[in-house]
Amino acid sequence: MEQEIIIGKKYRHFKGNMYEVVGFARHSETDEEMIVYKPLYNDSGLWVRPRKMWNEVVDDKGTLRFTLLD
């Protein structure tokens, strides 16, 4: 299931924490698409994750790693 990834929107990680997408990037060696995001529960800076992992299903119930919040 591919959900839209929107800059400025908040997402819930399947373990419960909330994050905000701040941009998109590309890996300099592999050209892989990356999501740039920040945690909303602390000030640990910016993080990146491969786009394919962002929308990854993490269990047999179809739970997405990150789910868009309304």
What would your notes on this structure say?
With 70 residues, the chain is mainly β. The protein is globular, with a radius of gyration of 12 Å. The protein has one helix at residues 51-54, and strands at 10-13, 18-26, 33-39, 47-50, 66-68. Helix content is 6%, strand content 39%. The protein has 1 helix and 5 strands; from the N terminus they run ββββαβ. The chain has a single domain, classed as DUF1653-like domain (SH3 type barrels, Roll), CATH 2.30.30.320. A 5-stranded antiparallel beta sheet has the order 4-3-2-1-5.
Order of helices and strands: EEEEHE
**Helical percent range?**
under 10%
Spatial order of strands in the largest sheet: 4-3-2-1-5
Assembly type of the chains comes to single chain
Any idea what the radius of gyration is? 12 Å
Coarse shape = globular
Largest sheet, if any?
Answer: 5 strands, antiparallel
Unreliable runs: none
Count the E strands.
5
Task: Provide a compact summary of the structure.
The chain is mainly β.
Features:
mainly beta, SH3 type barrels, 5-stranded antiparallel β-sheet, 1 helix, 39% strand
What are the SSEs and their pairings?
Layout: E1 10-13, E2 18-26, E3 33-39, E4 47-50, H1 51-54, E5 66-68
Antiparallel strand pairs: 1-2, 1-5, 2-3, 3-4
